[in-house]
Each structure stands twice: as C-alpha cells, then as structure tokens.
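Case study 2.
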Amino acid sequence: MTSQVSSPAEQADGSDGTDAAVVGEQRKPGGTKDVRRLDRVIIRFAGDSGDGMQLTGDRFTSETASFGNDLSTLPNFPAEIRAPAGTLPGVSSFQLHFADHDILTPGDAPNVLVAMNPAALKANIGDVPRGAEIIVNTDEFSKRAMQKVGYAASPLEDGSLDGYQIHPVPLTTLTVEALKDFDLTRKEAERSKNMFALGLLSWMYHRPTEGTERFLKAKFAKKPDIAAANLAAFRAGWNFGETTEDFAVSYEVAPAAKAFPVGTYRNISGNLALAYGLIAASRQADLPLFLGSYPITPASDILHELSRHKNFGVRTFQAEDEIAGIGAALGAAFGGSLAVTTTSGPGVALKSETIGLAVSLELPLLVVDIQRGGPSTGLPTKTEQADLLQAMFGRNGEAPLPIVAPRTPADCFDAALEAARIALTYRTPVMLLSDGYLANGSEPWRIPELDELPDLAVQFAQGPNHTLEDGSEVFWPYLRDPQTLARPWAVPGTPGLEHRIGGIEKQDGTGNISYDPANHDFMVRVRQAKIDGIDVPDVEVDDPHGARTLVLGWGSTYGPITAAVRRLRAAGEAIAQAHLRHLNPFPKNLGTVLKAYDKVVVPEMNLGQLATLIRARYLVDARSYNQVNGMPFKAEQLASALKEAIDG
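Prediction:
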C-alpha cells in the first residue's frame, strides 16, 4: 500500500533542502521491511584518509548518476598526503546530494553520516541535524582512539547522541568475517570495510550494483584475489542491510526524469570537464593541444587526464617547476599550438612574469587557475575565490588579460571552449578561474553533439601583409585586425615571416624594439583597448517579480546563490539574480543592470574582491557577503543573509 505524504514541489525551498521529504511509503512484497520514497537525500561518508572514503563516495555517485538522479558532490580531504591515523586533521569525507528533481549544491547538512571512527564522528557531528541517521563503525571506538580526539567517554554510551538515529555496526569485524575464506591477513581484509559500507548504503537507497562490480573487477584485474575480496565485502554489506533488524527501512529516490533535457549524460567532475573542454577546443580549432604544467593541488588532475589522450594530438609536459611549465606553453603558442598551463594560486604568482611576456607577445595562451585557500601554501585541499584580483592585476606594468570563470563542474567544459575562443580570436593570454569546489565536485553533464560546439578555426599568417613606400611587400607582426585588434599569428619557419619577439617594447606595426615614449603609450593603450573590446554576451538577469535587490555572483557561488534565491522566492520574497562568467572585460550591460536596483549584494569566498571592482568601475554601493573558511557557502546561510539585505 502506498500513501502520498508530500511532493517535492510542496517543499518550502523547492530544491537543495537540508531534510529529505518523504513522498511515499510501502511494504516490500513478501518481506518485513518498509520502503520509503524520498525526494532527495544527503549522505556523507567520513573516515581516516586511508579508509577509502573518496573511492566509496565516488562509486556511490557513479551508480546514482547511472540511475538517473540529479546530484552534486563535495569531496573534502586533508592537505597532508597521509595525516596521522585517527586524528581530526586526518579525517576525509565525501558528501553526495541526490534527488528526483533539479538541485544545485551538495546540500547544507547530511541526512546520513557514515562515521568510520571517532575522529570522523567528532569532525562531522556539528554538521548533522538532529533526527538524522548516523552509521557508526563500533569496532574503531576503542578507549585510545576516543582519547586521541578528546572523547572522555564513549559518545555511543554517554547520551550525547540521543537526538540522532544511531546504527552501531561493527563494520571491521563483519568485513573480516565475510572474508575469512580468503587468503588475506586481517589487516588486508580490514581494508575492504569501505566496500562493506558501500554495499550497505547501496541496499539502503536501492542503488544499482552492476557498475561497482565491474569497476572492482577492472581496478584489480591484475590482483584477482583482491578483486574477489572487495566484491565479497560489497555483497556482504548489501546482504547485511537486507537481513539485519537494525535497518527496518530502506529508501527510494526516483530518477530526476524532468530535470534534464533529452540527451546522453554522464557524471563528471570540474577538472575532467575542463580537460575534455580543452581537447574539444583543440579539435574545433584544428590545432595540437600542448599542456606545460607542474603538479599542484587541486589542478593536477587536468595534467593526469590530458596525458591519457595522445590519440587526440595532445602533448603534456610535466616541467621541473611552474616557471618552466608556462615557458614551455608559451613556446608552444609561438609554434602554433593551442597552449595551456594549469596551476593553482601559488603557481600563478610564479608564472606572472611569463604571463606578462605573453601579453607583450600577444600570443594565445590559456592559464588555468584552480583556486584554493591561501596565502602561500595556505589550505591546498580547500576551496576559495581569492585569486580574482591577482588575475586582474597580478603582473608588473599594464598587462591586461581576459578572465573567464565557470559556475558549475559541468560548466567547466563550456568555459574552456570560451576561454579558447577569446585567446585564439584576440591573440591574448586568458585566465580561467575555477576552484577546488568545482574541480573535485561532480554533477550530471549532457554530452554535446558535435554541431553544438563552436567553430574555433584560426588563420595563420601566410605571407607579407604590408607594402612599404618603395612598393616592396613585407611582413609586419604587429599590424592589427581592425575589428579585434589582434596581431597576425605567424608560425616559425614560414618563409618571409621572420620577425623578432621578446619582452622589450615593440614598435607598432613593425615589431622592432622601441624605446620611444609615444610608441610605448600607444602600445599600452591599444593592448588595453583590445581586451576592453572583446565581444562577450550581456549578463542575464533572473528577476520574475520586479525585485529591488540584486544578488550578483561569479564562479562556483552559482549553486548556493541560486538555491538561496529559490528558497526566498518560495517564501514570497522578491529578489533578482545575475551571475558573471566574464570578469574582464565585464559585459557591456552590467553597469545598466546594477543601477536598476536599490541594493546589490555580492557573495564571495574572499574578502570582497568582485565587490571592490564593481564599486570602483560603476560607483555602485555593492554590499559584500564573504566567507573564507575553505568551504562553499550553504544555501540556508546565504538565504538568511539575503533576507537581511532585502529587509535592511
């Protein structure tokens, strides 16, 4: 029997809520356990950095994507390669929000926490709302392990968790028992406890299992005994959920059939989408792709992924340092490649002189900055948006360059294509500002058709382009296109196109070295005019109710801002929203848009960098709402701040 309780549309926020809404309940035929239908669920896996929480979360996410739910993820892991076991700094977690409707964030707080040890429980319990379910690996709650994180008594026995639905499960013991027939040491068997937990959660939420089983067989193809052990642990977890009396209810979250346009979808992370976007750009431009890079968190995945695609004409060069990486990339740009260098904030600082050289040479170069917490080494595995002013001004002299920022993990694909379009059309380095939240987070992505991709074809210089007074024809490397102000792109070795390059100021047209003050003034202004004249789309404003308050965002704040705006509108508030992809130059209609509202609020994961630019450029009293704790905004947090702005 099924009884209708509520529907997703009847929820207060309409999306990205904290609590999962029950939309139906039924008894399994021939069984004793209830099945409840939910509209959304937020699960967080947490454990030691060696417990495989990222792998567990990734596999659960992949099966959820194949099932057809909309989803958003938030991996969160320590900066240390191997933090001390059982300590708070060593806790690694993976949060997944999946639903039967359109969602935008990984969720504010988990409905279910899987805590593999006391450190995982203590580090995450503050985020878990009362009434939520907590699955605890009781085997790890030894006196020593609890004392290591400051528990004077067991939280499983002292009443501190009475407000939660606690499921004490001896995960380690059950895993070892399930693998007793395998020729494994106890330590080796214990490593599969994450697969036991994954099997249990897969049963609880009716996730498909075939993909995970194929994954384990492929991952451990050269170690069939390990593959078999992980499969056995995974199936044992599923069977435990089916048979134990502690889990009387399982849950179903229907596919998000109405959330997606028709097409072929896959789950994708921001870094993977960005890598695919770069490959697509090189194919659309019919240019070889060259990546010159030095490994740095959280950008390294792009280097790893691109290195797998030599069949698409991709060449990857892992340099000895950041400066060598961009130097090689700039050389590849001079040689006629679609050139890219990837890094994070500290690496951008090291690359700044060569970025300035690229501005002076006016060559297409993509500089991908996956922002992280700073300054200096800062918080390597945490997210931040604090490199905007560095991207805008972080070079000596007047060295302007365009800045593009994706707003979701899947949007990183389109942002890469847009950055390539600008670089190739206007012969300029372009900064692409992603961040750790987008890089590691994932969501469904519709694979585009080839005819949907932009034409990025370029025309190299073929011969002389200027006639001197004596009638002789010559090649001038700085003779500009009258529409784009781009200079010709001459591939080295082309007969008759020999020209001088370097960092010293060039003479307009000829490209010869020039110390003439008037020429320098002209070249500085024309390089700025080229950036100012880049054709970018107008900013779109979502304002269905004629609001007086506008919330303006950029980059990865899109999801939390949009979720907060949905909550406010569902509560009867009028608020407008606009989001920037192009940060230099700004869209031409931005000033008009800003002046149309009484209040402008700019949420950022920094101390107000976009707001500073907006105030300076448009003389608008933009109000900052800032957070720099290494984590993305929560929708409820933003909704409260925006409500105060509306009422203030």
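The radius of gyration is 27 Å.
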